[in-house]
Amino acid sequence: MSAPSTSPALSPATSPALKKPRRLRGLLPVTPVVVFLAALFVVPLVRVFALSLHPVDANGYPLDGYSFVQYRRVFTESFFSEALWHSLLTALLVTVLSVLLGFPAAYALSRARKGVVRTLLFVAVVSPLLTSVVVRSYGWVVLFSANGVVNRTLVWLGFLDQPAHLLTSYLVVVVSVVHVMLPFAILPLTTALGGIDDNLRRASRSLGAGPVRTFWKVTVPLSLPGIAVGATVVFPLAMGIYITPLLVGGANQPLAGLRVYSQITAVFDYPVAAALSLVLLLLTLLGVSVLGTGFRFWEKRLHG
């Protein structure tokens, strides 16, 4: 009597006909969330696109019909085009500063042993995320106001004869935005640095490499995934931020997010605000794609 066939190709558990329904059943728990998020993203986006195509009259009220006149205004009027260019440069600067400043903090957090010190470091990194952006921004307003700590210190040290208008400066806006973005850069960097095997560093040191060479040749390349994630999270957030620049630097800061805000709340020109929003979104997606391509090229060059 011959034994029954146990070929994997004919096994019910490995049958392609049964794998597909099982895979679909695995997606059922996340389907409501995906549909909910997609609806809240796609439907408003379609409405904003339709609004951006409406021409407006002399008072800014939308008219019937469709045209690309709002997009032509966004690209030809310096009030909008310079804000887009300024937002792009500011977001790149904030991204670089967030990664550079976040790297030492992430390294210290990943190397700290479990205990009070590690807990305090983690709380120091995460606590800004538990506080409202508005509250943190007003904290910067208090620090850099005419009677704030920074102005008083500079006057006391003799660097200034009288308090300066620091709140309207571009430097203070960048510093405050970097402060808001730092946790988003530190957390993925901590995960990447914590996953590096210490034996690799010891092997590098045993082969004659010093601490600096070991850092550049071992630690930085292996932390590249964390750098990539941090940068691709910080960059789009910095592109669209407007609350912190508005509270710290005022409504005249040449950023696209503030231009959208002013067109909606002050000028009531909704079509051009919609067009500027969509151009800002496309520019953000383009920037994220360029960053992702650059990091993949860097990783391929490092690891072959």
Automatic annotation (TrEMBL):
Task: Give the SUPFAM superfamilies listed for this entry.
Answer: MetI-like
Q: Does the keyword Cell membrane apply?
A: yes
Has UniProt tagged this entry with the keyword Ion transport? Answer: no
Q: Which organism is it from?
A: Streptomyces paludis
> Single GO cellular component annotation?
plasma membrane
Q: Which family does it belong to?
A: Belongs to the binding-protein-dependent transport system permease family. CysTW subfamily.
Q: Which GO terms describe its biological process?
A: transmembrane transport
Localization, UniProt: Cell membrane
Q: Which residues cross the membrane?
A: 27-50, 83-108, 120-146, 166-194, 215-243, 272-298
Q: What is this protein called?
A: ABC transporter permease
| Domain ABC transmembrane type-1 as annotated: residue spans | 84-291
Q: Per its UniProt record, what CDD domains does this chain match?
A: TM_PBP2
- Keyword terms of this UniProt record: Cell membrane, Membrane, Transmembrane, Transmembrane helix, Transport
* InterPro entries according to UniProt: MetI-like (IPR000515), MetI-like_sf (IPR035906)
Membrane topology note: Multi-pass membrane protein
**Domain of life from the UniProt record:** Bacteria
